[in-house]
Write a structure and sequence with these properties.
Arc Repressor Mutant, subunit A; 471 residues; 21 helices; 5-stranded mixed sheet; flat; 52% helix; mainly alpha; two-stranded antiparallel ribbon
Length: 471
């Protein structure tokens, strides 16, 4: 008996993990569609139409927070709780709703959509969900966070299917996506170039055999190892620098052809709402994580009772329905619990950023937050993906901005440029930042300036001269 239980428990655990990860990746609107689809296909799953707390199922008499789950745990901690969707206060989006439809800001095309549009004709229908999962799980540089074997196990696909989709993704624009790191990204980009040039062959040798030395600019050492002249190595290194990108994801979000706006206001309905404490303006922040549906999900008790009266042919089918419904409810609860713990930590650490603005964002990584709340880094990446958060000042921003380590530096660069009496070069801006204790290289300043759509000094000088002439 115990042996049978253990054998049936292992696949359930794997199914639990896989479904929880897939639900965690969804935004609130996407999750609502998923819940409704599951309700329509599974008669054992029931939505109880009551206003209840999504966490403890306590009945709520009004649209406010649950009196039990919204209790502050420690004096300085924010109040974080799950709330039904109809508790959202629409006053924050009033300025957007008052705009005519043709004046509403259009959402920028994200990397996942951009790549999928290119793959439409080559991607087999069975591979579409896998491609979306892979693209949504990439880090900000466009690299895989999990090896292909883990992806195959999580998505319940074959290793060869994962390898096939990864190869397709790496060949579209920006090339080199979904690879293991900078070295593999460069080699994937070289694969797309015709190897009828000796420089290409030499570049491949250098990347494969001397990648570390290339990063250190150890030209003499590479030349000695390949038994060629240093000038040939410099020629190949220049080709790599000018034509290949070791971080393909960055080519889309700012440093390349797809600059990211400095403050795109494209979200109309946030997944999370942060507001001031209504009873104490100086008290802890209140964080509401909206549920996908009003009411609560459960395994239909009438369906469970009817199972005992079914014949042998129906028993197995109905048991599967009940098991599927139970698993879905547990996975949804696990998703909500992960989101609550994540927001508790984020708001506690970034309260200055939330209240005062971009300059006060503290550098923070997904890996560090994952360690603090006891989950894998990829779990944090999925929890952050496709989510938006409304701040107390009315702005609605992507949740991923809490992990944008360059945001405070970019805000300071914008301020330096705005207050400059004459155009400052990137070197001069880097020196100013260094004097303030912010150590960044000149080319990093150039990258951040490009992200913020700030022209180089010589072009700012020309624009200033033209404006002076007009005056």
């Amino acid at each position: 008996m115990f042996q049978v239980q253990e054998q049936s428990q292992r696949p359930l655990t794997t199914a639990h993990l896989a479904q929880t990860m897939s639900l965690l990746l969804l935004s609130n609107m996407e999750l609502r569609d998923t819940v409704m689809a599951e309700l329509s296909s599974n008669p054992a799953l029931e939505l109880v139409e009551e206003t209840v707390c999504p966490n403890c199922q306590r009945r709520l008499n009004n649209t406010g927070p649950c009196p039990a789950c919204s209790i502050q745990r420690q004096e300085q901690d924010p109040i974080v709780f799950l709330s039904p969707r109809d508790s959202y206060r629409p006053s924050l989006s009033k300025n957007i709703e008052e705009q005519p439809p043709d004046q509403e800001p259009a959402a920028p095309e994200d990397l996942t959509t951009y790549v999928l549009q290119q793959l439409a004709s080559d991607l087999h229908p069975d591979d579409r969900r896998l491609a979306i999962y892979i693209l949504s799980s990439l880090d900000e540089d466009g690299f895989l966070q999990d090896p292909p074997a883990i992806i195959a196990r999580t998505t319940r696909t074959s290793f060869f299917q994962v390898e096939r989709v990864l190869k397709l993704i790496s060949q579209v624009d920006p090339p080199g996506l979904a690879t293991a790191g900078p070295k593999q990204a460069l080699l994937a980009q070289l694969d797309l170039l015709p190897e009828d040039n000796s420089i290409l062959l030499l570049a491949r040798q250098i990347i494969e055999r001397y990648f570390t030395e290339l990063g250190r600019r150890e030209i003499e050492k590479i030349a000695e190892g390949l038994e060629i002249s240093p000038s040939r190595v410099r020629q190949a290194a220049t080709f790599i620098h000018d034509n290949l990108n070791p971080y393909p994801g960055r080519a889309f979000w700012g440093s390349g052809r797809g600059p990211q706006g400095s403050n795109p206001n494209v979200y109309h309905t946030p997944d999370i709402l942060i507001s001031h404490n209504p009873s104490d303006a100086k008290g802890p922040l209140v964080v509401e994580i909206f549920s996908a549906v009003s009411g609560w999900l459960r395994v239909n008790p009438m369906f469970s009772k009817a199972l005992a009266r079914t014949n042998d042919d129906q028993t197995e089918e109905w048991s599967k329905y009940i098991e599927r419904a139970s698993l879905f409810v547990k996975c949804l609860q696990q998703r909500n619990n992960t989101m609550r713990r994540l927001l508790q930590t984020l708001v506690n650490k970034q309260s200055d950023f939330i209240l005062k603005g971009d300059r006060y964002l503290k550098p923070m990584t997904r890996a560090k937050i994952a360690d603090e709340i006891g989950v894998h880094e990829s779990t944090i990446s999925r929890a952050v993906a496709h989510k938006s958060i409304a701040l107390p000042d009315g702005r609605i921003i992507p949740l991923a901005r809490f992990f944008d380590r360059s945001l405070s530096v970019r805000d300071r660069i914008k301020e330096i440029v705005k207050s400059e009496k004459r155009p400052l070069t990137d070197d001069q801006i880097a020196d100013i930042l260094k004097a303030e204790g912010i150590k960044v290289a000149r080319r990093t300043v150039a990258k951040y300036r490009s992200i913020e759509n700030i022209l180089p000094a010589r072009l700012r000088h020309r624009n200033g001269a033209r404006n002076g002439e007009q005056v």
